[in-house]
Design goal:
L-threonine 3-dehydrogenase activity; seven-stranded parallel sheet; binds (3R)-3-hydroxy-L-norvaline; UDP-galactose 4-epimerase, domain 1; Rossmann fold; 11 helices; NAD-dependent epimerase; globular; alpha/beta; 2 domains; 315 residues; Epimerase_deHydtase; NAD(P)-bd_dom_sf; NAD(P)_epim/dehydratase
């Protein structure tokens, strides 16, 4: 049966690049992208619909119009913005998910992708090589909503046999689409500022190690998970996925190898530091490696090289 995909939240950092990969794979005519506002650009053969994932009847009409076999739900409010509007973050991140889960059951949608995050871990989770299963006491409303969302995904799978799959994304680094309101966004801002002004005042402290992943790896890993036969999927909450871990000081040193005059400084206080301090420094992704042979390809040197080369020519 031909795959037809609806992506909700397609204008975001991950959605915009995942949509491109899905169009290449399934044909632009079989990928319907959607978001709450028009995209910046849309090619002739690309399909886009305005949708508010919190409007369940509009969402049902969208699903009935296109009859998708797969739905990717990427609409979410991230960690830093969520702390400014916690009630809105909970509403969007949880009720948006519930609408998609219930409509998938009602309309028989075969496969769902929903992103979780390493934000589900908290100060009492193991800091290094954080396990798939461990204490999870998230301090951000984003992490709380993602942890609750994971429990919903596992519940809907076991109770209704819904084929929903999920990845706990680390911080995602990319150059094509500006990120929106994340704590890990420094790892993108630093490249833009280094090229524009030769300097960057980092909002996280020098030794704040965080798990990160390059966008190419994130997109490939997501599609590999969605391609995996259902019987091989052993995790129905959300898979730990790791790329690499580094600190602001380490990425600054890597940038200086290409931009020797780059100067890094650190702000005295930023509320995002407390969020970052509650997250793991590195992730154990052995379940992903076992279930679908996950393997990241980008390290800090290749990320730095690719980011600078592309930002120089495309931004
Ligand atoms: C954020 N980029 O910073 C997201 C991500 C692990 C971090 O979930 O909120």
């Amino acid at each position: 049966m031909k795959e037809r995909i609806i992506m909700i939240g397609a204008n975001g950092q991950i959605g915009s690049e995942l949509a491109t990969a899905l169009r290449s794979r399934f044909g632009a005519e079989n990928v319907i992208t959607s978001d709450i506002r028009e995209p910046h650009a849309l090619k002739e053969d690309e399909i886009f619909e305005i949708i508010n994932v919190l409007d369940k009847s509009a969402l049902k009409s969208l699903f009935e119009k296109y009859k998708p076999t797969q739905v990717y739900l990427l609409a979410a409010m991230l960690s830093a913005t969520g702390e400014k509007y916690p009630q809105k973050a909970w509403d969007l991140n949880i009720n948006g998910l519930l609408h998609v889960l219930d409509l998938a059951l009602e309309l028989g949608i075969k496969k769902i992708f929903w992103p979780s995050s390493i934000a589900v871990f908290g100060p009492h989770s193991p800091k290094q090589y954080t396990d798939q299963y461990c204490v999870m006491d998230p301090v951000s409303i984003y992490g709380v909503s993602k942890l609750a969302g994971e429990r919903l995904c596992e519940y809907y799978h076991h109770k209704y046999d819904l084929d929903i799959r999920s990845i706990r994304y680390p911080g995602i680094i990319s150059w094509k689409t500006a990120p929106g309101g994340g704590t890990t966004d420094y790892a993108i801002d630093i490249f833009i500022e280094a090229l524009k002004h030769g300097q960057y005042a980092c909002f996280l402290s020098a030794n704040t190690a965080l798990p990160m992943l390059y966008m190419e790896d994130a997109v490939r890993g997501t599609i590999e998970l969605m391609d995996t036969p259902s019987e091989q999927i052993s995790i129905r909450s959300s898979y730990n996925l790791a790329g690499l871990s580094f600190t602001p000081a380490e990425i600054a040193e890597e940038i200086k190898k290409i931009l020797p005059n780059f100067e890094m400084s650190y702000v005295d206080y930023d509320p995002r530091q407390a969020i970052a301090d509650s997250w793991p420094a590195s992730i154990d992704d052995s379940f992903a490696r076992k279930d679908w042979s996950w393997e990241p390809k980008f390290d800090l040197a290749s990320i730095t090289e690719d980011m600078i080369a592309n930002l120089k020519t495309n931004v």
